[in-house]
Hints:
alpha+beta, seven-stranded antiparallel sheet
Amino acid sequence: MPFIRSHALDETGYVVLDRYDQHADPAEWLDLDYVPWRSSGITRFAPLTSYAGDLDCNGFWNHTPPRTDKDGVWIEEQVRKAPVLARRASEPGANIGRCRVIELQPNTYADAIYNLHQDDNNRLNAEGTGWVVRAFFNLTDDSDSLLILRQDRFDPASEVRLPLEPGSRIIVDTQRFWHAVWHPGDAPRYALITSWTSGPELDAYIAAGHGDPHAATVELDQQTVDDAQLELHRRIEERRRAFEAQGIVMEPPAPLG
């Protein structure tokens, strides 16, 4: 039995919604408690929900009993500090799994390409239920930063680059794409990332926000792309040799989620 999916994402795997007036909101993300958590770059996370309402970023399948990325429990002390962010995450009325603010330090395009990863939102998800996707709400003014999506990790021709202006709202099937953010700024980037379950509630939210599955991709010069590809393969080979020296056969990269 197929999963329930949001048809707005069928064609391209993502939609860009109308921009939110981020400047009207307080900078609640600066008041939250953060924990180290590995993602695409040098990152910390401030969870608003977790498996059991603790300050925890781990996948719900790594707890007992394990479950998919649904039914997140709000962390009371975090919600008290960021009620507006919690309200925004709840606005569609869709089921929420993990919900957290990411803090990403500045990086290079080559860093982002090396850190491309696929999420594992639907591990343990039962067929016939809603497919889990992710919303990215940019909180800071990162107009020069890009959300990079690739159908094929090693093929730049499959790459889409979406600008991250303040208030940008992007919903992505992050199990379909390899993805990372290129953030060339001089200060950390903050974004609210929420796992939502596909269904009529999410469909209505996307429609109300005029979700665009064909938002323009930002062009890069070919030399920048080629240099990043070379650096990607150099780092992978360097990593492989380091593991080989320890007698370890390097497996393909696991989803970071």
